[in-house]
Amino acid sequence: MSRLRRATAFMSATVVFLVTGCTAQLATHVEVDVFSGRPNPEFDLNEADSEAVIAAFSDIPWAGQSQTPPSNLGFRGLVLTGDTIPWYVTEDNYIQSIRVLPEGYYIESTWLGFRFVNDPEPYGELLPIVEDYLEDSLYTLLPPPEAE
Q1: Residue 42 included in any domain
Q2: Under a CB-based contact definition with an 8 Å cutoff, are residues 74 and 64 in contact?
Q3: Which of 12, 51, 60, 101 stands 20 to 30 A from 79 (CA)?
Q4: At a CB cut-off of 8 Å and minimum separation 6, what does 143 contact?
């Protein structure tokens, strides 16, 4: 078995271990992509909030529209990375990040690039979670969830 296959198999097993609720510490890193020319706010969610991220993205579809995320000024999404993202989907294609916006989210993967999923629900679920980690002046810059 090649090194790459062994590493992939190990990481796949690790993700299954983490996602199934075993005793490992879960971690989700969040970047609020809002600034240009200065660092964006970044933080790690606690374990309970990380579990909420697992619930919000339990069934990530691969059949999104191929599309690059916006590069405009202002809010460009909540960028999620870390242990709770269901990284390894196949042996060769895994998720690197999820960029969540009010209108849907972008999945960045190794082989498929960016895919847009038109589902506003995860943003509405994540917004109250990140509020606890941000100063009020920054939280007010985030757009509200889309009306249903």
Answers
A1: yes
A2: no
A3: 12
A4: 75, 102
Partners of residue 79 on adjacent β-strands: 31, 99
94 contacts: CB under 8 Å, gap ≥ 6:
11, 87, 88, 109, 110
Domain assignment present for residue 128? The answer is: yes
145 in a structural domain: no
Q: Of 129, 130, 125, which Cα lies nearest the Cα of 145?
A: 125
Domain tally, the chain:
1
Q: How far apart are CA 17 and CA 21, in angstroms?
A: 7
Six-digit token string for 118: 């038109």
Q: Would residue 146 count as lying in a domain?
A: no
Which among 142, 133, 146, 129 is positioned nearest to 56, based on CA atoms?
Answer: 129
Give Cα separations from 74 to 64, 126, 136, 143, 146 (angstroms): 24, 19, 17, 10, 17
Residue type, 60: I
The one-digit pLDDT tens for each residue of the chain (148 residues) are: 333 333 333 333 334 333 434 334 567 899 999 998 899 999 999 999 988 887 777 766 655 677 778 788 889 999 998 766 655 455 666 778 889 999 999 888 877 788 898 889 999 999 999 999 999 999 998 999 987 6
- What range defines the domain where residue 10 resides? 3-139
